Amino acid sequence: MEGPSDGNPFMDYEIAAEFKSKSESASVRGFYDGDGKYCVRFMPSFEEEYSFRLTSNFTEGEQTGSFTVTTAAPGNHGPVRVCGTYHFAYEDATPYYSIGTTCYAWTHQPQEIQAKTLETLKNNVFNKIRFCIFPKHYVYNENEPITYPFEKKADGSWDFTRLNPEHFRLIENRISDLRDMGIEADLILFHPYDRWGFSKMDPEMDDFYLRYVIARYAAYRNVWWSLANEYDIMTKTTADWERFAAILCREDPVSHLRSIHNCIHFYDHSRPWVTHASVQRTDNFKTTEYTDEWRRRWNKPVVIDEMVYEGNLDKDWGNITGEETVRRFWEAVLRGGYPGHGETY
Predict the structure, then answer these.
(1) Which among 16, 120, 162, 292 is placed 20 to 30 Å from 87, CA to CA?
(2) CA angle, residues 49, 180, 50, in degrees to nearest 5
(3) What single DSSP character describes residue 253?
(4) CA 115 to CA 109: how far, in whole Å?
């Protein structure tokens, strides 16, 4: 929908829609996509007739319409759900066996590196990839990103009330690429590895950013939400994480999978909003050997997203061999969990 671009469209104007069929109804927040363009996105769940009612605070009255949802195309199994307490299946009941990998900052690299990453994934077995929405600053990853999530003020500081649609559009293009390859996009919403100030916004701006991300990405069937990578070394409190989780539960009409990832101390994965445990090892000597214990503790699927990276670093988190990586995968699978791969050379 075309609309105004004066003032601050991200804060001043709102658009939303209600969708209804005989089997479901949903209220969906829209978002501003720049250049006077406003969008509302929705992923229907049934092969039915749907009606919609579109409202905004910059038009008089409301717009209405309808559409028909037809049978899903071949290869489209819908979003992944928890199935049988400890496991996963797509919406159409096709089993999903997670074999994930981690590329935190791949969408912030030059386009040729992104293309190479997609080509590598196309010729591999991974069906889930974890990555960050915010840029990352850490050892071996200190270059500037190709885009930033916010605009700058005249004085050079970040304006957290003005998002940069180009940044979020680039990420959604990668989500689409992954979807077409049958790969789940495990989006990390917050992380501590930051030199720009994005990890230390005030609560109002945190919530503003989170709502925008949900409005923009929730209609993609291959999205998972990870509230944080290594939540416990950030300055946010448990009350902050619980507030974010409540926003996710309230505003994501698809109810995508939700997790939160630890550094040293596990989050309470028994919390009802957590759909599955996203685990980093907390023992210097054992990792996937604990998989069945974690399953019993939380009564949920266990995804070991970080079991130490294969690599040649002088860091204990990045120097196991390929053989040891395979052994840990084997151990996790036999104990009923879902191991994830990472490497740093």
Answers:
(1) 120
(2) 10
(3) T
(4) 10
